Amino acid sequence: MGRSLWTVIRRDLRLALRQGSDSLMVVTFFVLCVVLFPFGVGPESGVLERISAGILWVTALLACMLSLDRLFQQEYEDGSLDLLTLSPVPLPVLVLGKVVAHWLTTGLPILLAAPVLAVLLHMNGDGFAVLVAAMALGTPTLSLIGAVGAALVLGARRGGVLLSLLVLPLYIPVLVFGVSAVDAAVMDFGFRAQLLILGAMLLGALALCPWAAAAALRQAVD
Amino acid sequence: MSTQPIEPPVEAAALPSAPSPAAPLFAGQGLGCIRGDRVVFRGLNFACQPGDALLLLGRNGSGKSSFLRVMAALVAPAAGQLLWQGQPVQDDREAHGLRTRYLGHADAIKPVLTVAENVSFWVRLWAPETSDVEAAVHQALELFDMGRLADVPGRFLSAGQKRRVNLARLFAAPGQVWLLDEPTTALDKASIAVLEDQIAAHRARGGIVALSTHTDVVLPAARAFHMEDFSPHREGLTENDDDDSAFGWTEG
Question: Which Pfam families did the record assign (chain A) (predicted)?
């Protein structure tokens, strides 16, 4: 089973690398959106500093969502999904493999870009480490929840719009605790509780989402 | 809306009731399938022993593909049951996946992966115990004279070559049951001959083949299913004539 997981991860990573533009686009979107904010709200460092955590998290959420449609859409269209469904490996394991690969190609680059952009937004240096930690816990949750949404909208017309309606409300808890962890760190409060809750959400999503997505995929194939 | 009469079934009609000496390895009882609001087929029975072949015949839209998808457990039957050694297939989907290979209309070939990568991924997934994946892939590709294309990305393949890669995938990780949906589409004569040879070898090993086709495929001693026999409206009536409740077939 572990080997099958690795097989799927490796294949999806290879696909993402060969079609490099996809994951590059996600990071570029993330960077560009964040850079827009100083133009929009003005260059006052006080204002930017105050809202920096919120900007980074909201933009990360949107960037992650933007990349979700390629998680299963291509597999669905070219018939690979039939064959994946009809394999000796439990479907939730395959879903997990695809989600891991998705996170490595979208969540991880966002995570790496976030501290650099935080400098741009004048974020207090105390927040950097917590920002990275919170994103390390939060972005995999985004990928997992997103996988359920992406599986549910397969075959639907205008799936992309539907996907955002489905998934964005579910992202709110991650957003709330992600932002409040960074804010707490910047203001010298305890941030351990927020990180623990983010970790708990990740574990919960890890336990539930692959199964939910697998059930939705079977529905899409049917 | 065709006025052309459908060929009356000859030997196929007697098929479902034909008793088999032992309990069948792979069987379906009273299978029914609904796509959208339309009943595609109903009351379909089949039973396969090792080495058997089913030939699915019928016009476009007569339910050949749906039947194969039901056999693959990709689509849950609206009525009836699919059994493997007397056990419902739904109880253990992974075991069904291990023994079943399905070849559909879509080619499932990634344009950016090479031919060898396209095949080896599925071999690793379908037959995890394969000791030398590369060798198995190479051997299967050579069957179709595709060895020299092993490093070519999928996007450069022609329709026939894609189909051959799909079949190579099947031969590199052979399961016991092959479900082939019009496998001869876009294939040249030489490749069809290779396919026939492989099917014969597969049956000799005790494998089961179900195959839908419009062209002539040599399948010795295959049992023919005329899908129109199981259609709720035999003359190809219009959608308005659908009335599922009138058929009264039982669920489960």
Answer: CcmB
Give B235's contacts (C-beta < 8 A, 6+ positions apart): B5, B6
pLDDT digits (tens, 9 = 90+) for B89-143: 888 888 898 899 999 888 889 999 999 999 999 999 988 888 888 899 998 999 8
Q: Does A215 touch chain B (CB under 8 A)?
A: no
Phi, psi at B3, each rounded to 5°: -95, -5
* Dihedral in degrees, nearest 10, Cα atoms B212, B213, B214, B217: -140
Mutate which: B34, B89, B93, B113, vs A, most A CBs within 10 A: B93
Rg (CA), chain A: 18
Nearest to B82 by CA among B13, B126, B35, B32: B32
Contact A78 B113 (CB under 8 A): no
The one-letter amino acid at B27: A
| Chain A residue with Cα closest to B109 | A78
**Contact status, residue B202 vs residue B219, Cβ threshold 8 Å:** no
Tell me what the pLDDT averaged over chain B comes to: 81
Tell me the residue length of chain A.
Answer: 222
> A with B: how many residue pairs have Cβ under 8 Å apart?
73
Q: Which contiguous run of DSSP H or E holds residue B33?
A: strand B26-35
Residue B107 to residue A79, Cβ atoms within 8 A? yes
Task: Say whether A88 and B126 touch across the interface (CB within 8 A).
Answer: yes
**Domain ranges across chain A:** 2-221
| Contact at CB, A82 and B106, closer than 8 angstroms | yes
Model pLDDT for residues A201-214, shown as the tens digit of each residue: 999 999 999 999 99
Q: Give dist(CA A133, CA A130) in Å, integer.
A: 5
Q: Report d(CA A110, CA A66) in Å as an integer.
A: 13
Searching chain B, which residue's CA lies closest to the CA of residue A92?
B94
Amino acid at site A17: L
Q: Is A124 part of the contact surface with chain B (CB cutoff 8 Å)?
A: no
CA–CA dist B185, B127 (Å, integer) = 26
B113·A15 Cβ contact <8 A: yes
Helical residues (DSSP H) of B7-62, grouped into ranges:
none
Sequence-distant (≥ 6) Cβ neighbours of residue B223 within 8 angstroms: B12, B15, B52, B53, B54, B55
Using CA coordinates, name the residue in chain A closest to B104.
Answer: A79
What predicted TM-score, i.e. pTM, was given to this entire model? 0.86
Alpha-carbon distances of A63 from A23, A105, A219, rounded to whole Å: 10, 12, 27
* Residue A122 near residue A116, CB atoms below 8 Å: no
Q: By the CB < 8 Å criterion, does B100 face chain A? A: yes
